[in-house]
């Protein structure tokens, strides 16, 4: 066997050895980076799963309450109509107040590091109250028989498709300042057109003008269109904000902020569902 004992040979051998060590270091760093990337991806998937499971739970609670509530009221009305009437009014007021207070409570606890029991309780209370509040609308849109109404199931299916599409297209919101400005502009436009709408309604009642009645009709349609656009944009905006929170590792574990994100998407889903349900009910009657 030949041995190279000259100086140049030793240097060359040592250089090859150094390159081999550097390559091992680079490979280990790449392996570590790949492992960290997979870990982050897994964490994000789990966080998204937690949010959507909470969204599904809240929606399910609202669906059960909203569908069963009309039948319970009808049973009570068969026994005592007056009691059913006042119970319905009282529960509707409680539902609105419950939604308001649970929303405020979740907003205050969103960034809190304390236990998530309060936030979860608020989400459940909100979903129950939402079911009670939506129940009269569901009754009107389904002719008091929501369980066997195709309108309700069609509305839910269409809403799900719209909701998923908005989530997938939320990545288009590149310039957040532009979209914030757009939402502010829509809000101002809504306030102005609603003010004009009330003035037209008042003057129509006073003078009974056919022209004013037509103007009131078209401004009402404009209000509904602006509200629908506003809801769609705010839903995309909420999806984008949650994506940014994921990227900043603010949602790296189950927390109050996770529940708050789920509640935000839940409210967006219910708003879209309400609009779709009203449109389907109106088209069916026409």
Can you describe this structure?
The chain has 286 residues and is mainly alpha-helical. Helices cover 86% and strands 0% of the residues. It is built from seven helices and no strands. Helix 1 packs across helix 7 (256-285), helix 2 (81-109) crosses helix 3 (117-141) and helix 4 (150-169) crosses helix 6 (210-247). It is globular. 24% of the residues are buried. The model is unreliable at 1-14 (pLDDT under 50).
SSE layout and pairings?
Elements: H1 7-79, H2 81-109, H3 117-141, H4 150-169, H5 176-207, H6 210-247, H7 256-285
| Topology order in helix (H) and strand (E) letters | HHHHHHH
Radius of gyration: 29 Å
Cα separation of the termini:
99 Å
Low-confidence stretches are 1-14
Main sheet? none
Strand element count: 0
Mean pLDDT: 80
Structural class: mainly alpha
Q: Tell the overall outline.
A: globular
Keywords:
single chain; 286 residues; mainly alpha; 0% strand; globular
């Amino acid at each position: 066997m030949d041995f190279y004992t000259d100086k140049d040979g030793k240097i060359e051998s040592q250089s090859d050895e150094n390159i081999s060590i550097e390559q091992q270091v680079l490979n280990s760093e790449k392996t570590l980076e790949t492992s960290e990337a997979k870990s982050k991806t897994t964490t994000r998937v789990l966080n998204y799963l937690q949010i959507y499971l909470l969204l599904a739970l809240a929606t399910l609670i609202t669906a059960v309450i909203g569908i069963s509530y009309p039948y319970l009221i009808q049973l009570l009305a068969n026994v005592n109509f007056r009691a059913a009437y006042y119970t319905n009014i009282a529960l509707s007021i409680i539902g609105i107040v419950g939604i308001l207070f649970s929303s405020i409570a979740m907003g205050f606890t969103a960034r809190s590091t304390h236990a998530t029991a309060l936030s979860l309780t608020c989400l459940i209370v909100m979903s129950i109250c939402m079911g009670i509040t939506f129940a009269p609308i569901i009754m009107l849109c389904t002719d008091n028989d929501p369980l066997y109404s195709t309108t309700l199931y069609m509305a839910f299916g269409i809403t799900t498709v719209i909701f998923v599409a908005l989530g997938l297209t939320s990545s288009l919101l590149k310039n957040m300042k532009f979209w914030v400005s757009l939402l502010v502009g829509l809000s101002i436009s809504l306030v102005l057109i609603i003010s004009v709408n009330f003035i037209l309604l008042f003057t129509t009642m006073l003078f009974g003008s056919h022209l004013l009645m037509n103007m009131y009709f078209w401004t009402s349609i404009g209000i509904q269109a602006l509200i629908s656009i506003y809801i769609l944009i705010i839903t995309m905006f909420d999806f984008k904000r949650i994506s940014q929170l994921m990227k900043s590792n603010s949602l790296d574990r189950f927390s109050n902020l996770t529940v708050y994100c789920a509640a935000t998407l839940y409210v967006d889903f219910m708003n879209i569902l309400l609009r779709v349900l009203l449109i389907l009910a109106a088209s069916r009657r026409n």
